[in-house]
Amino acid sequence: MIVYLTHWFCARDRSRAIACLYAANPAASLVGSPLAGWLLGVHWQSLAGWRWLFILEGIPAVLVGITTFFYMTDWPAQAGWLPQPERDWLVNQLQAELEAKKKVRDCTITEAFCDLRILRLIFAYLLALTGALGTIYWIPTFVKRLSGFSNQTVTSLLLIPALMGIAGMLINGWHSDKTAERHWHSAIPLLAAGLMFGLLIAFRHDAPLAIACLLLGSGFLYPYYPAFWAIPTMMLSEAAAAATFGLIQSIGQLGGFAGNYAIGFLNDRTHSLAASFAFIALVYIAAGGLILSLRVRDPIGVGQSGAR
Predict the structure, then answer these.
(1) Distance separating alpha carbons of residues 94 and 116, to the nearest angstrom
(2) How many domains are there within the chain?
(3) CATH number for position 9
(4) Which of 294, 292, 284, 285 lies closest to 130 in space, CA to CA?
């Protein structure tokens, strides 16, 4: 999807485009979770609720998929629904951007994989997802143990990070494009999330403050995504970009296993949540630090300048 967005959006608009894409994740949680809970309780036409869950949530996906196949062309030049002057303007803008990148460096896939800046991005994304996916898996348990609230109350509280995520990604993506800056817009949310989990260790015996830090830390993370994914688009294009985005995403997803396992291990060994909170804080801060250590030259004047 990130590669596809580079086919349609110029660099100056890319962070906002990525923000809209990623905002769909917390938005889906806000809509899907209550809907799924309600559907599981129905019994229509002699069908159990879980069957209706698959039917009613599957039909929109199929319809949108069919529409997408015919409407979303690979390139603007193929979009018959776009007026010719707009199509030509967009094609020319994207082509000029591509040529500017190639003048700085026209990477092959192998060269991109060996670039130290790409390796830092991979490691930063791995660390960020280690904390993020570990938090997603464990946050209901964290809130329950810190507060003692009922399952329904815990579920309601978990809507707060999702709402923060939607607003944060859209605002941060817009501001990143407006100010033509990527690194700090990506790192600050990670550092802020790490700070909240660090404070959570100190406040873990004070339920209201602890829950506030936990929910804020979970919500602060989301805004880093748009600016983060805009960084490699400043360096790479075409096949090298597609392969590199896939590599970053594939290795980053290992964080789902690492974070979940590490938090479970720390909880079992220490019989306390403090070690898990410290672990999450450290991986977020380390990820933010790695992103700030990058020096990426933007050939088209969007983002931080300064060659490595």
Answers:
(1) 26
(2) 1
(3) 1.20.1250.20
(4) 284
pLDDT in tens, 285-302: 999 999 999 877 665 554
Instruction: Flag residues of the chain having pLDDT under 70.
Output: 297-308
Tokens 């894409």 found at: 21
Asked whether the beta carbons of 165 and 27 are under 8 A apart, the reply is no
Is residue 306 situated within a structural domain?
no
Residues facing residue 43 across a β-bridge: 48
d(CA 130, CA 286): 11
Q: Give the total residue count for the chain.
A: 308
Cβ pair 79, 73 in contact under 8 A: yes
190, 152, 202, 173: which is closest to 33 by C-alpha?
Answer: 152
Write out pLDDT tens, residues 120-136.
999 999 999 999 998 88
Which two three-digit tokens encode residue 38? 């309600």
Structure tokens at 142: 């964290």
Report the distance separating Cα 245 and Cα 110, nearest Å. 13
User: What pLDDT, on a 0 to 100 scale, did the predictor assign at position 308?
Assistant: 37
Range of the domain at 205: 2-39+105-292
CA 44/CA 135 separation, integer angstroms: 36
Q: Is residue 56 part of a domain?
A: no
Angle between helices 224-233 and 11-39 (to 10 degrees): 140
In a domain, 285, yes or no: yes
Q: What pLDDT is recorded for position 25?
A: 85
Q: Is 307 inside any structural domain? A: no
Q: Strand 43-44 vs strand 47-48: parallel, antiparallel, or unpaired?
A: antiparallel
